[in-house]
Amino acid sequence: MQATVGKLEAQYTALKTRHKLTARLPVHVVTYERSRTPEEPAFGERLLIGEGGFLRPHSHEYHELTLCLEDGGIHDTRAGSTPVRRGLIIACAPGEAHAFRLSGQKGRGRAIVCDYLAEWLYPDLRPMLDEPEFVSLFLHNAAFAETCRAEIPQWHVDDETIDACMHELRDTVLEYERGEPSHSFMRSCLRKAMIQLYRAYKANAAPGHPLKTEPAVRAALARIEDCILQCTPFQMSTLAEELELSPEYFSKVFKDATGSSPMDYYQYQRLQRACSSLLATRRSVTEIAQSLGYCDAAHFCNVFRRILGTTPTEYRRSFGC
After folding, report:
1. Domains of the chain by range and CATH?
2. What is the C-alpha to C-alpha distance for residues 234 and 223, in angstroms, rounded to an integer?
3. Could you tell me whether strands 80-83 and 74-77 are parallel, antiparallel, or unpaired per DSSP bridges?
4. How would DSSP label each residue in 5-46?
5. Are 95 and 132 within 8 A, CB to CB?
6. What confidence tens digit (pLDDT) does each residue in 45-88 have?
7. Which among 151, 177, 124 is positioned nearest to 7, based on CA atoms?
8. What is the Cα–Cα distance from 210 to 123, expressed in whole angstroms?
9. Which of 61, 130, 163, 302 has the greatest CB tally within 10 Å of its CB?
């Protein structure tokens, strides 16, 4: 499978099954390095970087958060090449291609990589709607499916933030190595690490973030989440009237910010909530369809397959449920 992002073409797609992401373990932490160094502590699984210090251009089926611990190498994206330095943070969404070139560089290129399923991490977006940049950084594909970010977010953090994040990732690994890990605990650890990284991003990122935050858009996002939670229809025209905007202008502002029309976004978020239920519960497909306001399970399955490319049953089975 190949994906093209700008001028950088992914030579392969990293699959969630290969990286051990399942309903039981929806987060996976890996320590990457160029050479084995037993004296250095590792987080989670320990893997060697590819032959010659290369990680070929690739994309992912999942979200990936990388914390670089040493200088040395180049990170390639559609926007260009960035020197790898200690404290470099990289936040990739599914389908975004990138690569590392570490050959000939000093250092081992050690990095902690955290792979996670967005539909597990934040099944409810409402707590994050006041910080849409946070959503776009760490949950972009899950929240804004139709948009293509101009570039993969990259920013630097200081040693204090590195230590704080490593502490949370260490606790995440210790928890999922238990026989019956607590998903609430693992979510809390990963969220805390992300909040630390987000604060550094806000302090250091260049202006002009691609996700706009007009009040009308924030109001629509909140209303859609409420409609999904309350299992009530979302009426775009009603909300546009409340905001004293024409439906045409409201739809344009919303699409500029999210890449989708309000109704398409509503439909997509209903399915994200369905995915969360399929992962976290044993509820039947019919029960999930009813809880989200679909007229029947057949209609729900048709919409699920049309938008996500698989059926609810196949989706659940792919995560070992």
Report:
1. 3-204 (2.60.120.280), 215-318 (1.10.10.60)
2. 8
3. antiparallel
4. ETTEEESEEE-TTTTT--SS--EEEEEEESS--TTS---SEE
5. no
6. 887 776 556 788 999 999 999 999 988 889 999 889 999 999 99
7. 151
8. 23
9. 61
Whole-prediction pTM value?
A: 0.85
Q: Which residue has the tokens 């001028």?
A: 7
What DSSP string runs through 223-284? Answer: HHHHHHHHT----HHHHHHHTT--HHHHHHHHHHHHSS-HHHHHHHHHHHHHHHHHHH----
> Which of 104-140 are b and which e, b meaning 16 or more Cβ less than 10 Å from the residue's Cβ?
ebebbbbbbbbbbbbbbbbbebeebbeebbbbbbbbb
Residue pair 22/320 in contact by the 8 Å Cβ criterion: yes
| Angle formed at CA 231 by CA 228 and CA 232, multiple of 5 degrees | 95
Tokens of 228: 């999904």
The residue length of the chain stands at 321
Structure tokens at 210: 């691609």
pLDDT digits (tens, 9 = 90+) for 103-120: 544 555 689 999 999 888
Tell which phi-psi region holds residue 310, choosing left (phi > 0), alpha (psi between -120 and 50) or beta: beta
Distance (Å, whole) CA 197 – CA 159: 12
287 sits in which H/E element? helix 285-291
